[in-house]
Amino acid sequence: MASDAKSTGSTKLDAVVQNVKAAEPEKLSGLALYSRFALAGAICCSVTHGALTPVDVVKTRIQLDPATYNRGMIGGFRQVVQSEGAGALLTGAGPTFAGYFLQGALKFGGYEFFKQQAINNLGYETASNNRTAVYLASSGAAEFFADIALCPLEATRIRLVSEPTFAKGLVDGMGKMLKNEGIGAMYAGFGPILFKQIPYTMAKFVVFEKVSEAAFRSFPKDSLSPSAQTGVNLGSGLMAGFAAALISQPADTMLSKINKTKGLPGEGTASRLIKIAKELGIKGSFTGVGARLVMVGTLTAGQFAIYGEIKKALGATGGVEIAK
């Protein structure tokens, strides 16, 4: 049978070429590639959000009851532990891990997928010249689908944190909400979560891409050690987290408020949101922003560092970079 490879005219050289090609890692594409992006995203989001559950518990308490929890983040930790015990800091850990596992898979996997679709439709050069728009559109589209999966779990988490005696955990809490309030209660916060998460994710990916692009322009990626590349991912992720936290803070506060309790009979989500916005005002919308800056900055830095390492470990190297 004839070989598919072109001959160089030298049997020995042909053998060397074939050995080199055999040693090269296979380039992934399609489902094999994007499933790895999704798994890396699921792991990085669930691990980071899960690890910061205590911070999120305190942040949510400050947002929901600022009159009681008025001593800042450190004081809030002490108040929760003194009144409910250290275990209370892990309230909602189950919904947090499960929700952000699903959301991370769809967000990071979807971002890479939609970015590739933009490149396919626009052409590489056009996509590269308009990469900020590509980053914004890809991250926004990915987050929309990710939030469909996240919303019921986030609603359950907030109810468990705001009412510690409401249920024993994720399954019990979701069951009670569905039975007593219907599926609508699980998506009562869908509007606020989109208002919060889409700008958050757009800022997160754009700032990360821009900061890392600037860093690698000054220090070429190929010349950096793996640890230095991870350091760039951490630093870029930290900047991205600060920007994302500030942009999405008002919607995060509204999301906590709307999921704290069920609405009045006949009261729609839109009317509830308008009422909450009026009650909060500008200052109230940024309640707990200090705790959230710490939380989001830390977890975003961790996410991008973990995401990059897991992609490398899984051999997910077939993505297309459009940075110049």
Write the layout of secondary structure elements.
Elements: H1 11-23, H2 30-51, H3 53-64, H4 72-84, H5 93-122, H6 124-129, H7 131-162, H8 170-181, H9 183-186, H10 190-218, H11 226-260, H12 269-285, H13 289-314
Helix pairs in contact: 2-5, 2-13, 3-4, 3-13, 5-7, 7-8, 7-10, 10-11, 11-12, 11-13
Characterize the largest beta sheet: strand count, sense, and whether it forms a barrel: none
Residue-averaged pLDDT, rounded? 84
For the terminal residues, how far apart are their CA atoms? 45 Å
| Helical residue percent band | over 70%
Could you name the ranges where pLDDT drops below 50 across 5 or more consecutive residues?
A: 20-25
Strand residue content:
under 5%
Radius of gyration computed on alpha carbons? 23 Å
Order of helices and strands: HHHHHHHHHHHHH
Label the structural class: mainly alpha
Q: Could you characterize the architecture of this molecule?
A:
- The protein is an all-alpha fold and 324 residues long.
- It has 13 helices and no strands.
- Helix 2 runs antiparallel to helix 13, helix 7 crosses helix 8 and helix 11 crosses helix 12.
- The longest helix is centred in the last third of the chain and has 35 residues.
